[in-house]
Amino acid sequence: MTDVTMTINGRSVSGTVEGRTLLSTFLRETAGLTGTHIGCDTAQCGACTIHVNGASVKSCTVFALEADGAEVKTIEGMANADGSLGTIQQAFQDHHGLQCGFCTPGMVMTAAALLEENPRPSEEEVRDYLKGNLCRCTGYHNIVKAIMAASGQDVSAVAAE
Amino acid sequence: MYDFELTRPTTLADAIKALGEEDAQPLSGGQTLVPTLRQRLAMPSTLVSLTGIEELKGIKNGGGTLTIGGATCHADVARDGTFPALSELAGLIGDPHVRNRGTIGGSIANNDPSACYPAAALGSGATIVTDKREIGADEFFTGMFETALEEGEIVTAVKFPVPEKGAYVKFEQPASRFALVGVFVTKGADGVRVAVTGASEGGVFRWSEAEEALSSNFSPDALDGLSVPSDGMIGDMHGSPAYRAHLVGVITKRAVAKAA
Amino acid sequence: MPADGGIGAPTKRREDVRFLSGTGRYTDDLNRPGQAYVFFLRSNVAHGKINSINTDNAAAMPGVLRIFTGADFEGVGGLPCGWQVTDKHGEPMQEPGHPVLAQGKVRHVGDPIAAVVADTAEQARDAAEAIEVDIGDLPAVIDMKKALEDGAPKVHDDLTSNLCYDWGFVEENKEAVEQAFKDAAHVTTLELVNNRLVANPMEPRVAIGDYDPAGDMSTLYTTSQNPHVIRLLMGAFVLGIPEHKLRVVAPDVGGGFGTKIFHYAEEALCTFAAKQLKRPVKWTSSRSEAFMSDAHGRDHVTKIELALDAENNFTALRTDTYANMGAYLSTFAPSVPTWLHGTLMAGNYKTPLIYINVKAVFTNTVPVDAYRGAGRPEATFQLERVIDKAARELGVDPIALRRQNFITEFPYATPVAVEYDTGDYVATMDKLEEIADLSGFEARLEESKKRGKLRGLGVNCYIEACGIAPSNLVGQLGARAGLYESATVRVNATGGLVVMTGSHSHGQGHETAFPQVIAEMIGIDASMVEIVHGDTANTPMGMGTYGSRSLAVGGSAMVRATEKIIAKAKKIAAHLLEASEGDIELKDGAFSVAGTDKSVAWGDVTLAAYVPHNYPLEDIEPGLEETAFYDPNNFTYPSGAYACEVEVDPETGKVTIERFAAADDFGNIVNPMIVDGQVHGGIAQGIGQALLEGCVYDEDGQLLTGSYMDYAMPRADDVPYYTVDHSCQTPCTHNPLGVKGCGEAGAIGSPPAVVNAVVDALQRNGSSITHIDMPLSPSRVWEAMNQ
Predict the structure, then answer these.
(1) What pTM value is reported for the model?
(2) Is C203 on the interface with A (CB under 8 A)?
(3) Cα distances (angstroms) measured from residue C666 to each of C384, C561, C674
(4) Is the CB of B163 inside 8 Å of chain C's CB atoms?
């Protein structure tokens, strides 16, 4: 067992972990942040996507010890300071970009990484960037639309709400 | 996962020392290894993380050669742009999250028959630098998931000669999005190279007939009438050997058109 | 309309706030104090005799609390099947036992052999690896037709064969259908496969058993679409726990799509083990486990024949289907290829004579049951494919051929036992032609040609029967459950309402849409209404959510209960206003006396109900809480027309979806935003089935598509924006909301459009290809083009 400390959503969190403890497990079980979800075991679904030192990663492919000393951001850290939904979160609600909500945290974290890199992505660029995030409910239509809207682009011409 | 000890050395020397222990295994970006461990398909006693070693990271451009540290992630290579075909290839691996973690050294050392990087290394005549020696790409990739690396030897850098022309075209397997067939083509000082990944049971390979034809005429037309035999091609639910052999021809033409 | 949205408003979803901020409460987010973990040792062979199981070494490993095997369940019931189909000779189907843990034999890869309970999940898995199991391999049967051959290995030794049932429908029509085929001017025949799918909700299944010895109370937390059904099946049939000693909670559930309807062995094991060990026991499925333990969907092999007269009118239809049941009968499996499939074979057309034969077959594969659409996609696919093929053979326009044969008068009694109440197939087709811009197709075709791509257009219609359904009817058809729905509406003293519904939301947005209905009925803000669901401890006995039934059946129950509330509130208001009850009107949240300016607010009436100082106690009880159970008298029949445009890369066989349009008739709409979302998701699953997804076993019964590395899920770059429309509305005539249900339509309507489009693209390029089996992967399309 080894001690590990990281900053999660601006708060320092410490714990004692095994070598094999995944960062996703540390977040869910030690930090009590269950917004990060586990949807597969082959690093394909992206439900566990978070940011480590500003880069999006699948937290089920990173060991907790590898994030020792890192700045970690999860879905629980995406709201505005007053607790209201952040721009991307709000766009997902406004455009019905989620249904069951299970893939949603990973989608929001991915969208945040995309818009950081590319503030006005095209539809094609959004779809390409979402390659590592599976959603079974929405058919992606409203997720893509929500991200386009969150980037400040006019989506009123996109078919249907 | 079986339990193991995870160490995070900060120097190459410490990493090499740690890898000297019995059943120690290097851990780079972990994008293949961690899922493998989660399936309990590997049982290391110690994992030696290489991603905390600064001397293994970074991209240097000098004298027509691009040297990429073994622990450099795909996203960094994708952003670099010095060798556009290589950057494009790096930007096609996996997805954005995978590219932020996966490393060139890890990918090359694993030599997955459907991975992209082996095609780049072989297709541009790269040199694989390890903690012990330098190995030419032609000698490095020895078969599916097999390389010239010895036990405990790690890839510290890959040196790419930047060619005059180059391109990578990837035709994705619909589920995994690995290459069903990927072709990396370059035309440089040492001639034309065509490297194919995803297709062969022997892993990445050079299509020498195509190289020969393209040497005198670097255009898609030069490949008319050429085909690879389907013997030895991978056959699975995503494509028969004949289909993969056919795709090698189609994708090579597209790569040449893109490079030319 | 209420300020925050009544019926018809695109109200934003209130549940989104918790899902978007990471505070949803999914089953795996729950942990009980002192919880232990279970790992299931599963068969790695498809068929084998269990010679011995030795758990001695495993039991001695660190942290191990108990190891259960089939022997522990010998005195316990097996997993029950909820539907009995009667075959064409009037005999009941063959119904094998389904033990919680394998007894004597393993019958598919993934069949659970033992369950190890330990202090940690890793300890449980470590110990499972130390269990010594000696299995004698038996030959596996995977292919359905081979499974029915004489001398084929039997999946269940105590059955006479691998045939579950041989069903004929409608048996009395058979001779007339045969005669019609003899008399036909043209017969089109098509053989096809409806590919086996894995539902893949993004949340894997989870079960937590908990036991309180003080009250002898068992609780199961589970990822279920219908907690009451699980309580009934598991309590009464498997573990013998009376329902008042068993609580089932299905909190936030991350998608279902059918596969979370069924009662699973893992639920029973966790509940059983918790009681035995007096400790909570948790199981979280990995995705790899899900592929070999969640019930799969579809998997039909069909021959369909369509007879036409000289004027191209459909005169008869005949089908011959093999339906895979897998190794055991999952909860509703027998109903899917029969009553949810055969009854839909008339489609949107006035074909007078229809005969369907279905042979349900046991194989050494994971059980197959309902997956989004369940039977109706299989019916629609074969019907709409054979019509397309007929049009091409006859050289007529596929849309014109459909229009010519549309049912145009309603109600319409089909020759396959159902009566469509309403519909307007001409209107949805007209709407489709408009929104899909079919008149612009030729120009797009030319543009594709310039880029070396083959463009094709596919169109089809669909009809579905959903909002299931009348209990007395389904009872006659073999259902062992009722299919009503329930709601309790509790009005609080200060006027707010809590609706306890038997429906279950796992993505459908009930917490938002249900209050819209009540807000509209009373004339108050929707924010005054709270929805409670998913816990048998605080909701009335309900049948759950599947078959596009939540609003049509569950919503109707809520309407009925609310009507009772309003009726009682009017009595109270009449008393307060010293008026006759018959003169009381409810509008905009106030009761008024007709023709006067006398009124009393909703909140004053509700307060009076709980503070009955000035109250007609001699006539009515205090309080304002009502329950209703709603049992519909028919299915609902949503319908629509879909169009897909594809491009085929002739060099690689890769198909891309360029445009997709859907014109649906769902009757009345409560929340159009949610309806659009349901259609989008269904279309993506249909495109997934058509182009990408397919569960593959090798001949030994090994699952080759055991992860997302080989099972191709639709991703964002596989699909386009969809154009959807539901402005054609013929309201359902028999439920109070006039709604029809929209959850499955997209998955039912889209696969034939995609395949029709690919065949169209290839034929326009001179190919004689008439069919390619799904999924139309690049290699399959290329192989077909290069045969």
Answers:
(1) 0.97
(2) yes
(3) 20, 23, 13
(4) no
